Amino acid sequence: MKKTVQMYEGKAKKVFKTDNPDFVIVQYKDDATAFDGKKRGTIAGKGAINNKVSNHFFQRLEQIGVQTHFVKELSDRETVVKNVEIVPLEVIIRNVAAGSFSKRYGVDEGTQLAISTLEYSFKNDSLGDPLINDYHAIALRLATRDELDKINRMAFMVNEFLTGYLLGIGIKLIDFKLEFGKFKNEIILADEISPDTCRFWDKDTNEKLDKDRFRRDLGNVEGAYIEFMSRLLGE
Ligand code: UDP
């Protein structure tokens, strides 16, 4: 498969066309942003780590029947994925209170939630990705009821799988963000699952092994990404 022109450059990835319209190549960058792009920096080695970590999770998820955009890892930073039409929703699952949930509802970070929750944000940078509910998403034609039902089912399957898998390597899955796309009229999991898009806490010490180290200037950002990858992949 041949990489052709760049289609798009996002905050953490570039996307290139290929000679096959069904496939594109994503290239992971070391750039990091937070707070709607107001905080910017780089995390050395992050692109290669997120590429490997995300591909590892997507291949495991395929094995349990979750369809994903993953096709083939090409190199350290590049992966062939299906050319989906992204559903403009960020789908957030939470097991433990943290971040915007803690702030919005006044609940301490680290509080175990009575049930795992799901919420959507409308992916729209100029509006600051506002929280949106299912009725509003359907009203705005972002997705249909059937598509949302499928997205919700898949998101909770991802949560069940990842929670158990990560506990096995001593990590608590606090919360995470997923994005879905449409490919040949089917909803499949797209984007990435990595320390950029999840909160991972060490099971015993609650040490943060994710992008909160960058967002909150906690130090040892690179070390945390490396520690996460080596627990997951033994590298
Ligand atoms: N998240 C993300 N991209 C976003 C917003 C959130 O990947 O644009 C992830 C974030 O890493 C965390 C989860 O979604 O794992 C919940 O984030 P939260 O709503 O608490 O927002 P934050 O505190 O990061 O602003």
Quickly describe the structure:
With 235 residues, this protein is of the alpha+beta class. Helix content is 30%, strand content 35%.
Which SSEs are present, and which pair or pack?
Blueprint: E1 3-9, E2 13-18, E3 23-28, E4 31-34, E5 39-42, H1 46-63, E6 70-73, E7 78-82, E8 85-86, E9 89-96, H2 99-105, E10 112-122, E11 131-132, H3 134-139, H4 145-167, E12 171-183, E13 186-190, E14 198-202, H5 212-215, H6 221-233
Antiparallel strand pairs: 1-2, 2-3, 3-7, 4-5, 6-7, 8-12, 9-10, 9-12, 10-11, 12-13, 12-14
Helix pairs in contact: 1-6
The protein binds uridine-5'-diphosphate.
Uridine-5'-diphosphate (UDP) binds at residues 90, 92, 98-101, 129, 175-177, 197-199, 211.
Description:
The chain is α+β, with helices and mostly antiparallel strands. It folds into 2 domains: 3-82, Phosphorylase Kinase, domain 1; 85-221, ATP-grasp fold, B domain (D-amino Acid Aminotransferase, Chain A, domain 1, 2-Layer Sandwich). Helices cover 30% and strands 35% of the residues. It has 6 helices and 14 strands. The strands form 3 sheets. Strands 8, 9, 10, 11, 12, 13 and 14 form a 7-stranded antiparallel β-sheet that branches. Strand 12 and strand 13 (186-190) form a beta hairpin. The radius of gyration is 17 Å and the shape is globular. The protein starts with a strand and ends with a helix. It binds uridine-5'-diphosphate. Uridine-5'-diphosphate (UDP) is lined by residues 90, 92, 98-101, 129, 175-177, 197-199, 211.
